[in-house]
């Protein structure tokens, strides 16, 4: 099985690029953000716990997302691998992922990192706010907190995956098709 970490700041294009990636490489797309938004929409206890954190632009507890991912690894069948979008987001989550995979003698295949500058994050999220109505896109101060949280808690994963020899950076600036071409150029080699 292949395990790809699709990494990048808010608005980098992870969700946008994921569809074509899962189709081309027969992967299951697991977005912890989307899974959490479904829990909120369904009004589950987990959703209630996550709602305020997400709407303030803070991370939900590591154990919550780790549990969601592990249960999907166990239940999803008939794919050639997983595309993890928005997970891991802390060093603790990355270590938990390594442990989950090591139980079956598996490991992360690559961390595919979409990089865009902070100014473009704001621009893309402001654009998406008009279209999708995500609660955490609506207020500029929440978007700023998401960017701060990314730099403080998630960016250290770059060195984590570099040290593991798994880090692959893609320039996320350009049209959706240009970025997709760069991703396929990289992933066709795995
Ligand atoms: P999550 O849903 O993961 O949000 P995020 O990481 O902030 O990322 P986004 O979904 O905002 O960005 P994206 O990279 O998918 O961009 P997109 O493709 O949509 O997480 C939400 C929250 O859930 C977190 O803040 C946290 O509270 C919680 N959470 C989730 N995972 C967690 C975890 N592991 N641990 C703890 N908490 C967790 O693109 C953005 C916009 O740009 C779109 O409008 C798109 O059309 C446009 N666009 C994309 N590419 C291009 C391009 N090349 N050119 C022009 N426009 C483009
Ligand atoms: Mg997304």
As a percent range, the share of strand residues is: 5-15%
Whole-number mean pLDDT: 97
Structural class call reads alpha/beta
Rg (C-alpha, Å): 16 Å
| Uncertain ranges | none
Topology order in helix (H) and strand (E) letters: EHEHHHEHEHHHEH
Determine and state the CATH class.
Alpha Beta
Distance between the termini: 11 Å
Biggest sheet architecture: 5 strands, parallel
Task: Tell me which CATH architecture applies here.
Answer: 3-Layer(aba) Sandwich
Q: List cofactors, ions and other ligands.
A: BIS(adenosine)-5'-pentaphosphate, magnesium ion
Report the CATH superfamily: P-loop containing nucleotide triphosphate hydrolases
Helix count from the secondary structure assignment: 9
Total beta strands: 5
